Amino acid sequence: MIPSDDPDQGRSRLRASDSDRDFVHQILSSAMSQGHLSPAEYEERAEKAVAAKTFGELDSLTDDLPVNQLTTAAVATSRRVNQASAGVEVITSRVAVMSGSELKGRVAVGEHLNAFAMMGGIEIDLRDAEFTSDQLTIRANAIMGGIEIVVPHDATVRITGMGIMGGFSGSRNAEGKGVPGAPTITVSGLAIMGGVEVVRRSPHGQGKMSLDK
Questions:
Q1: 137-151 per-position pLDDT tens digit
Q2: Residue 26 neighbours by CB under 8 Å, 6+ apart
Q3: Buried b (16+ CB within 10 A) or exposed e, 55-93
Q4: Which of 7, 116, 122, 181 is deepest in the core (most CB within 10 A)?
Q5: What pLDDT digit, counting tens, does each position of 27-39 carry?
Q6: Cβ(169)–Cβ(92) under 8 Å?
């Protein structure tokens, strides 16, 4: 075959690497969180990104998206796991007994986080948290109380808790696979005559994900 003089055509035939596929996956995730793609469209394109062999196949998945804008958002919100900074306290628990408690902002979390609410309420928002482990297990127990857990849009989330005369669940699309490099969050525990809800939301400033509306 005669080599093409078109640099774009030549690039499209080049083999893509795992990091190239991961980067496109991050762009697609950011596109869904901002409403450029529906959940079904994201799932279809994400599957194709995993199987893509060339740059041409990857480019076809993003050529109708505002890539520059989404790349900036993906880099800004990508949740790579870091070691806790010196002197930074790793939060391991939140308790609310006939009261309220919250965990949000630039806080550090480790491998385990315990939340106990009895006739009270706890709000946990991990969108701005610093993850010091790639695996976080949240044990949420609510007795005649409520616990809301907001997880980052790019995290892998598993919900294994149980409700007894109460509810232990996630909002639509709360549970599922996230972006490579982001942490895996497992939510377990019991809700007895109370409720535990897991919600996946976009980064601050981008609004709530359309899936939660």
A1: 999 999 999 999 999
A2: 74, 78, 154, 179, 180
A3: bebbbebbeebebeebbebbeebbbeeeeeeeeeeeeee
A4: 122
A5: 887 787 678 888 7
A6: no
The first and second tokens of residue 186, run together, are: 């497992």
pTM for the predicted model, two decimal places: 0.61
Q: Which residues make beta-bridge pairs with 158?
A: 186
The runs of H, that is alpha helices, within the chain are: 7-12, 18-33, 39-51, 55-62, 67-77
**DSSP per-residue codes, 4-27:** PS-HHHHHHTSBPPHHHHHHHHHH
From CA 29, how far away is CA 70, in angstroms rounded?
A: 9
Total residues belonging to the chain: 213
Q: Which two tokens stand for residue 123?
A: 């709000």
Instruction: Give CA angle at 132 (130, 133), nearest 5°.
Output: 130
Distance of CA 79 to the CA centre of its chain: 8
CB atoms closer than 10 angstroms to residue 54: 15
Query: Under DSSP, is residue 67 helix (H, G, I), strand (E, B) or coil?
Result: helix
**CA 188 to chain CA centroid, nearest Å:** 17
211 Cβ contact list (under 8 Å, min separation 6): 39, 171, 172, 173, 200
How far is the CA of 17 from the CAs of 14, 22, 49, 51, in angstroms? 10, 9, 11, 11
